[in-house]
Amino acid sequence: MGSKKQNINRSSNWLDTPELYSWLRKAAFNSQGFNPRSYENKPIIGICNSWSELTHCNQNLRQLAESVKRGIWQAGGFPLEFPVISLGEYHMKPTSMLYRNLMSIDVEESIRANPIDGVVLLSGCDKTTPAMLMGAASANIPSILVTSGPQLSGRWRTEPLGACTDCRRYETEFKAGKINEQEWKEIQNSILRSPGHCMVMGTASTMACLSEILGMALPGNGTIPAVDSRRHQLAEQSGFQIVKMVSENITPSQIMTNKAFENSIIGLHALGGSTNAIIHLTAIAGRLSIDLPLDLFDQFSRNTPVITNLKPSGQFLMEDFHYAGGMQAVIKEISPLLSPEEKSVSGLKISELATFARNDNKAVIKSLDDPIYPEGGLAVLRGSLAPKGAVIKHSAASAKLLNHTGRVIVFDSHDQITDNINSENLDIKDEDILVLKNSGPKGAPGMPEWGFLPIPNKLLKKGTRDMVRISDARMSGTAFGTVVVHVSPESALENSAMAAVKTGDTVKLDVNKRKLELLVEPSEIKNRLKNHTNDNPKKESGYTQLYKKHVLQADEGCDFDFLRNPTK
Ligand code: FES
Fold it and tell me: Among candidates 451, 442, 450, 446, which has minimal Cα distance to 484?
């Protein structure tokens, strides 16, 4: 392949023109120590790297970039690595989601502005994968994704632990006085044992696995552990493959088709994946002018059982999932539900990939006939409280709360809940419903993962472990409980029912009927909204101002209005 003339039309526009700058660009390569034979008549492959010491999940991406480069050289390409902003889930305030769109712009414009014929995208932590795919979809040059891989399973004494499902579970036990300070510290030092992203089926794992069924990553990308030598082989192979994709001009819009997104939604349900994936898939599709209405997610949810037994909905961790056969085994099990003709960056169709897969552990990966949960893990709710929709991960909820009517206790802000939830004076019972406002895309801003509202300590001590919780926020993909999120329109918008709800009102949740109703007369809701003013009209500047002005609601993927549907 090295001797073959590649499709390098794009970089030729930088390097093979009569202007002085073409000459200078080659001088610049020479200054980096490259002989002309390194780059002449070769496709230039960008390696878009979101490595950062502020993003622990992406800490191995520098080493993976070296493996990618090896593959690119082997195939006759010229690799050039470049950085983009990185989004670390643990460190960024108020939330990494505020910056997902910014990162996607960084990815798109870095590709667009440079002499790159194809790109390998290196991501890992939650928002870095959707941001990469959004940017690549917009730039639409040959692209392939490699993620950092899941961390090894955590282990405390003899118990396997998954971040951050078990952090949340043990925090509750710690607050309830069931484990002591020393044990809580031991868990802190036992849970994150290696490079890589969270090792439950949280958002990072969900998006990495969906990249296989969407077709944008090679088989194994979703599950090979970060520290496994096979992840370096996968990175090398991805470097080799991108050169081939450039020669055939295979672009993201050819891979990420309408049907490929439908396959991904089916995959999402079969995995019992993260609620955040609904927002991210919608945003990625929107960059290609493909609409994924919320009802489509619900329609597939009704017909797709959860077949993977993974935390937070199930029992096992990503390492177990990989040894059982990984995402390709899931694709094989659910193949009767999929559109078989969709292409992958591997060059093979989904149906062809599935023929190589094996399911080696039926305790971890079940089948359509014998699933973990009879329908998809995520449901879309509608009703007077959420006219444009809300989402619940019912596979990770308490069965007894899925049809529940209760009095609501409303908190107007995240600070208010932090300050008051453990007050002895708080009038609250375990059958009440907690509601958090002003936590949506514009209201927070950035729609943080505040939806997993804390249970008051006084109820925890009495044994309560779950309550119905409702917000316009998101929920971490690693969290669990009867948590309704993404209520749209959000409370910060005028005429939103979420803005009208008050402590003492009654709300009815009926997941089977997909209903979320505020049981207040419509005339009273109208009346309240007439007098509603946003009491926190904080003036923002810079990027946050741009974000608040242009961000779309959750049901449209929280992308910027000027980036979605470019051809419509
Ligand atoms: Fe990065 Fe969980 S903190 S994926």
Answer: 451
DSSP symbols for 369-383: SS-SBSS-SEEEEEE
Beta-carbon contacts of 1 under 8 Å, excluding residues fewer than 6 positions away, are: 75, 76, 243, 244, 247
Location of structure tokens 């993620």: 147
CA 376–ligand 1 middle distance (angstroms): 24
Full-model pTM: 0.96
Helical axes 326-333 vs 258-271, angle rounded to 10° = 100
Superfamily, domain 42-153+193-354: Response regulator (3.40.50.2300)
Continuous segment of H or E residues that includes residue 468: strand 468-471
Which 8-state DSSP code applies to residue 5? Answer: P
Inter-residue contact 236 to 70 (CB < 8 Å): yes
Q: How far is the CA of 51 from the centre of ligand 1 (A)?
A: 13
Q: Which of 126, 127, 129 to mutate for ligand 1's pocket (most ligand atoms within 8 Å of CB)?
A: 126
Structure tokens at 274: 């993260």
pLDDT greater than 50 at residue 2: no
Say how far apart CA 197 and CA 123 lie, in whole Å: 10
Helix (H) or strand (E) holding 459: helix 457-461
Mean pLDDT of all residues belonging to the chain: 95
Please check whether the two domains, 42-153+193-354 and 381-556, share a CATH topology. no
Domain ranges of the chain: 42-153+193-354, 154-188, 381-556
With a 6 A CB cut-off, is 197 part of the ligand 1 pocket? yes
Q: Read off the DSSP letter of residue 359.
A: -
Is any atom of ligand 1 closer than 6 Å to the C-beta of 167? no
Would you state the torsion angle of the CA atoms of residues 181, 171, 453, 197, taken in this order, to the nearest 10 degrees? 120
Tell me, using a 6 A CB cutoff, whether residue 479 lines ligand 1.
no
Sequence-distant (6+) residues with CB within 8 A of 325 are: 332, 357, 358, 359, 360, 361, 365
Å from CA of 125 to ligand 1 middle: 5
Residue 385 has pLDDT above 50, yes or no: yes
Residue 362 and residue 332 in contact, taking contact as beta carbons nearer than 8 Å: no
In Å, what is the CA distance from 519 to each residue of 78, 283, 389, 482?
63, 32, 17, 19
Contact 506, 406 (CB under 8 A): yes
Q: How far apart are the CA of 222 and the centre of ligand 1, in A?
A: 14
pLDDT at 537: 59
Mean pLDDT for 407-428 is 95
Taking CA atoms only, the protein residue closest to ligand 1 atom 3 is 89
Q: What architecture is the 381-556 domain classified under in CATH?
A: 3-Layer(bba) Sandwich (3.50)
* Residue 534 scores a pLDDT above 70: no
Q: How confident is the model at residue 49 (pLDDT cuts 50, 70, 90)?
A: very high
Q: Assign 7 a pLDDT band (cuts: 50, 70, 90).
A: low
Residue 89 CB less than 6 A away from ligand 1:
yes
Query: What are the backbone dihedrals phi and psi of residue 20, each rounded to the nearest 5 degrees, phi first?
Result: -60, -35
Quickly list H helices, 60-99.
61-75
- CA 130/CA 53 separation, integer angstroms: 20
> What 3-state class would DSSP assign to 483?
strand
